[in-house]
Amino acid sequence: MANSLKGSRTEQILINSFAGEAQARNRYTYFSKVAKKEGYEQISEIFLMTAENELEHAKLFYKLVGNNTNAHVDAFYPFKLGTTEENLKLAIAGEEEEFSVLYYNGEIIAKEEGFLEVSDTFRHVRTSEQHHAKRYRELYENLASGTLFKKDKEQTWICRKCGYVYLSKEAYPVCPCCKHPSSYAQLLCEKY
To answer: Each residue of 76-127: pLDDT tens digit?
Structure first.
């Protein structure tokens, strides 16, 4: 980068973004454990996968800040751990704020200050956060409406434990193959 980030608005946004992503990673790890305990294996796994995405975002922001040994974080972060349904709502709100406000503003300000690489990074990370929000919203709606394991039409389901595949309107209470509970069932998605 030709310009120095030191003391710029972009630098502070990167510092806050690093802290936010690091905290989101930990929150999603906690949310994953709650989902697993409540019997939502797929949601647990999605929280963990998203936590790893947030780790990568934190790394990107950390590298862009460079060597700044003492940085002040100026932001608010949620400290709440609820049910899986509540945690999904919190996750949706956080992801929506990141892609529509925080990283949108970061992209614009970085561009205005001449930090095009940083602006591009915010733009790319925004697409990830938008996808996270969409995925969490769909999971929340399925959970809240009671359709996570039960659909109106026949669907192809797969057991996450043994790979047993079957056609049904709802997940089996117990997998006929490996005898694991329906918490291991999910819709089969095979678009590769």
So the answer is: 777 888 999 999 999 999 999 999 999 999 999 999 999 999 999 999 999 9
Tokens of 4: 């120095």
Cα distances (angstroms) measured from residue 146 to each of 4, 102, 149: 52, 33, 7
**141 and 176 together in one domain:** no
Separation in Å, CA 189 to CA 49, 74, 131, 156: 16, 41, 17, 8
**Quick count: other Cβ atoms within 10 Å of Cβ 89?**
17
C-alpha dihedral, 104 to 106 to 110 to 116, nearest 10°: -60
Q: How many CA atoms lie within 13 A of 20 on its CB side?
A: 23
Residue 55 is assigned to a structural domain of this protein: yes
Q: Is residue 4 part of a domain?
A: no
**132 lies in the same domain as 162:** no
What's the domain count of the chain? Answer: 2
Beta bridge partners of 66: none
Single pTM value for the model = 0.90
